[in-house]
Amino acid sequence: MISVIETHDLCKSYNGRIVVEHLNLSVPQGCVYGFLGPNGAGKSTSMKILLGLVHPTSGSVKLLGQTMNEENRIALLRKTGSLIESPSGYLHLTARENLKIIADLKDIDHKDIDRVLEIVHLTADANRKVGQYSLGMKQRLGIAMALLGNPRLLILDEPTNGLDPAGIQEMRGLIASMPESTGATVLISSHLLGEMEQMVTQLGILDHGKMIFEGSLQELRKHSRGGIQIRVLDVKKGIDILNRQGILTQPMTHHLDILQLPSISDEKLAELVRTLSENNVGVVGLTSETKSLEEIFLSLTQNGREVA
Length: 308
Ligand SMILES: Nc1ncnc2c1ncn2[C@@H]1O[C@H](COP(=O)(O)OP(=O)(O)OP(=O)(O)O)[C@@H](O)[C@H]1O
Hints:
This protein is of the alpha/beta class. Helices cover 34% and strands 29% of the residues. It has twelve helices and 15 strands. The strands form three sheets. Strands 7-8-9-4-10-11 form a six-stranded mixed β-sheet, sandwiched between helices. The model has no long low-confidence stretch (mean pLDDT 89). Adenosine-5'-triphosphate (ATP) is lined by residues 14, 19, 37, 39-45, 191. It comes from Blautia intestinihominis.
């Protein structure tokens, strides 16, 4: 797996207060990586460090395979597009005029403007003044600016901030298709897991400056298993056998034939069901509670524990 962004033990303190703590971020090439965390977790600060806008207190950043230093910083950032904080753009100019300014600043051929307008669905409105744009259109213009020059990496800080549900939906589709439509790897931050779920494949969850989970959405879902309920024909024998396996269980209050088990792995569950069947307990039903991703996220960030 090639990483497009790697940080090593990145730390940042402001006036002695740690806001990013030993951050080891690894963003695989070709993915949409969701950088999640509650307000104030340190997402923007980390992204600004990646873009050379803020100096880390310690640690290093590797972008596109190269450790960033004063010599290669500008060259690396030329291959990176970003949208940090609210969308920029001169309100009295059209989207096309704004894009021309950015293209000139970045020394990019004006031919690229039509391509990026097309990607963000602003071709029809390209000659309207940005002051007349909705927030969603301004956000899309911000992304078009970031896309100029076909960067290999896009860093987007809360691009869905302030958008209405339709705007969020549109932004999701746009970002999810980015690796395929532009070849870019995307790092996108948000404080809402629900918003990210449909557009990211990899996730990093930051809390109080620390990474508490990094992995795929599937890996995060592994933490979604809640308790398990097994309906059996012989309850007493079932309890005995489970206790002998080290599993404490008891019948549910209103369903005396259903045993309530704590959360266990799929492998352990399969083994228990086999043992119960071999001992003629008669397993006739099995249900497992699942926590929503939002619940997992909340329980992780409230406990602040590391699960990766
Ligand atoms: N220039 C600064 N000087 C002092 N403290 C700062 C500075 N920039 C950020 N901080 C503090 O660092 C912490 C992390 O802020 P940051 O903006 O990185 O969090 P965030 O995860 O992006 O939050 P949000 O989702 O609210 O944008 C906050 O407590 C913030 O007040």
